Amino acid sequence: MTTLRTILLGAALGAALLAGACRATSGYLSDYSRLGPNPDAPGDRSARLWVAPGDALLDCDRLLIETYALRPKSGSFLAKIDRGTARELVDALRERMIAVVDPYYSVVSEPGEGVLRMRVAITDLTFRGDDRDPADASGIAFEVEMLDSRTGQQLAAATRSLQVPDGTSAYDALAERLLAFMNQQTAGTQ
């Protein structure tokens, strides 16, 4: 009886964790099924990563950075503010990403040979103060995928929530982490 109870409790816990993981996604990525723990963030359950096997990313030296999507989690800061303000905050984040990446990768506006299409959905932002200044962003939750710009094939995907220390902006932290990932996976010049 104790063994059966343990098995049933384990199965119930596993199902609850799986249901929680499914609810944590926004539905933005084209495929969540391949995401696994991010080896660069051990112990961080929000940090999930998948990179296509092979060297498809090595051939990419230009980026097409789509307008960031707004996919607020229920009850999040982004869900509580007006849509226009949220859009302004997310657009500022995309501009920060372009500023960080542009010295190392050509940012383009059209798909093509060697162009990696980056899609990002912001699911939450937190700020240290009430002024919502991007420099005071203390946390960010996001989903990102990188696609072959011509075929639409998913080449990499990740989800993560970041909290940053005082004196650091979550906007900068996200942009720098995405740049570091690009440099690890592609022929980046940094």
Descriptive overview:
The chain has 190 residues and is of the alpha/beta class. The protein has a single domain, classed as Double Stranded RNA Binding Domain (2-Layer Sandwich), CATH 3.30.160. 32% of the residues lie in helices and 26% in strands. It contains four helices and eight strands, in the order αββββααββββα. Strands 1, 2, 3, 4, 5, 6, 7 and 8 form an eight-stranded mixed sheet that branches. A hairpin with a 5-residue loop joins strand 7 and strand 8. Helix 3 crosses helix 4. The N terminus is likely disordered.
Which keywords apply here?
190 residues, alpha/beta, Double Stranded RNA Binding Domain, 8-stranded mixed sheet, 32% helix, disordered N terminus
* CATH fold-level assignment: Double Stranded RNA Binding Domain
Specify the CATH architecture.
Answer: 2-Layer Sandwich
Rg from Cα: 18 Å
What shape does the CA trace take? globular
Tally of separate domains: 1
Order of helices and strands: HEEEEHHEEEEH
Number of beta strands: 8
In terms of DSSP E residues, the strand content is 25-35%
Distance between the amino and carboxyl termini: 60 Å
What is shown here, in short?
The chain has 190 residues and is of the alpha/beta class. The protein is 32% helix and 26% strand. It has one domain: Double Stranded RNA Binding Domain (2-Layer Sandwich), CATH 3.30.160.
List the helices and strands and how they pair.
Blueprint: H1 2-23, E1 36-37, E2 48-51, E3 62-65, E4 69-70, H2 77-80, H3 83-101, E5 106-107, E6 115-127, E7 137-148, E8 154-163, H4 170-185
Parallel strand pairs: 3-5, 3-6, 4-6
Antiparallel strand pairs: 1-2, 2-8, 6-7, 7-8
Helix pairs in contact: 3-4
